[in-house]
Amino acid sequence: MSSRCEVDSSSMYLFEFNGYFSSFKGLLKLILQNNSIDDYIVAEDLDSENTFIILKDGDIEQLGLLLCDFCGLVCASEEEKYIHQRAHYFI
Ligand SMILES: [Zn+2]
Q: Residue 83's pLDDT is what?
């Protein structure tokens, strides 16, 4: 397993991760957990593919974003969250 990290001026980190996108999310969560950083959450970026965003808990509401209660996916509206969350019930 290899990973590479690049940092640009806008706090965007580029990782090359040889594994599933979802395992990378688990890894990020674990890193936060292990560092007792519990006021940050890992969410998927809706605009770009294979991109995670790490948000401070309080910032989410400020941005008008909603999180899926099950997987933490970022939803732009109540409706979107509702539709998305329904999918979890059918799995
Ligand atoms: Zn979800």
A: 92
Under 8 Å CB-to-CB from 70, ≥6 apart: which residues? 85, 88
Distance of CA 69 from the midpoint of ligand 1 (Å): 7
What is the share, in percent, of the chain residues with pLDDT greater than 70? Answer: 85
Rounded to the nearest integer, the mean pLDDT of the chain is 78
Q: To the nearest 10°, report the CA torsion of 69, 38, 9, 50.
A: -30
Taking the centre of ligand 1 as the mean of its atom positions, its distance from the CA of residue 18, in whole angstroms, is 23
Those residues with Cβ within 8 angstroms of residue 12's Cβ, 6 or more apart along the chain or in another chain: none
